[in-house]
Amino acid sequence: MSKELCLLRHGKSDRDLAVDDFDRPLKKRGKIAVQRMGEWMLQQHLIPDYLVSSPAKRAITTASITHKALSVEGLDIKQDRRMYQEGLESIKSVLADCPISAARVLLVGHNPDLEDLLIYLVGASRLPETNKLLPTSSLVRLKMPEDWSNLEAGCAQLLSITYAKSLLDEEV
Description:
By secondary structure, this protein is of the alpha/beta class. The chain has one domain: Phosphoglycerate mutase-like (Rossmann fold, 3-Layer(aba) Sandwich). The protein contains 4 helices and 6 strands. Strand 2 (50-53), helix 2 (57-70) and strand 3 form a beta-alpha-beta unit. Helix 1 (28-43) runs parallel beside helix 2 (57-70).
C-alpha cells in the first residue's frame, strides 16, 4: 500500500492586528475556508492517520477546525515547533518522525516551507505554473514512498492541489 502526504496551508490570517507573527489569528473568511476544506476532505474520504501542525495560532486553529470537520476518533493533533519557519530540512525531519504505520499524514503549516517541501518532493518541472502554488487553505495530495524517513528529491507524485476558493460559495 502506498503512502500519502497531505499538505494543508493555514487559512487566511489577520495581518492587521498588532500581534507577534506566531500569535496571528485566522480571519473569519479563513475559518470558513478551512471549515469547507475539512468538510470536502471528509466527503473525499481523505482521513489522515497522523496529523502534525505548526503550533502558531493560525496553523493550530486551522488544524483544529479541520480535525473537527473530519470527526475522527483517536486522531490527535501533534504540535511540532519544527513546522514553524524552520525550513525544509526541519519539515523533512518531522516527516521522518512519523510512524511507519501511518498511511496518510496531514501536515498543517506555512509558506514558504510547505511550497519548498512540495517542490523538493515533486520537482518544480512537475508542478503547475502559477503565481501562487499554495495560497491559504489549499490542500496538496502526494503519493509518497513507503518510508517517511527516506525522502529523496523528486520521490513523490503529485495527486492533486485543491484550492479552498474552488470549494467556496460566492458570498464568502
